């Protein structure tokens, strides 16, 4: 059975919870187990989202969507030009 995929905002929140627990003197392994993830998932999430805040994550998603829209806008005329030639 496949597991539930976390939303990026939830991942950032869990990363902050791990930091708080580590500040209270718990090891990384104890902290990630307490929030309900594995050490590998924490490592992977930390590598991808690092020190992002929720606002930065929201802005990143907006920029990715805008970039995708602009790529489509550029590729459509290029495709039409290739079809005509």
TrEMBL record:
Lineage, please?
A: Bacteria, Pseudomonadati, Pseudomonadota, Alphaproteobacteria, Rhodobacterales
Record InterPro entries = Homeodomain-like_sf (IPR009057), Transposase_8 (IPR002514)
Q: Which SUPFAM superfamilies match?
A: Homeodomain-like
Protein name from the UniProt record: Transposase
Gene Ontology BP terms: DNA transposition
Taxonomic superkingdom = Bacteria
A GO molecular function annotation here is:
transposase activity
- Which residues, if any, are the signal sequence? none
């Amino acid at each position: 059975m496949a597991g539930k995929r976390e939303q990026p905002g939830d991942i950032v929140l869990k990363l902050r919870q791990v930091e708080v627990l580590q500040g209270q003197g718990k090891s990384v392994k104890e902290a990630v187990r307490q929030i309900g993830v594995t050490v590998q998932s924490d490592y992977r999430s930390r590598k991808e989202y690092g020190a992002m805040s929720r606002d930065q994550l929201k802005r990143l998603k907006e920029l990715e969507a805008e970039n995708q829209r602009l790529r489509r806008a550029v590729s459509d005329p290029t495709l039409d030009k290739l079809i005509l030639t």
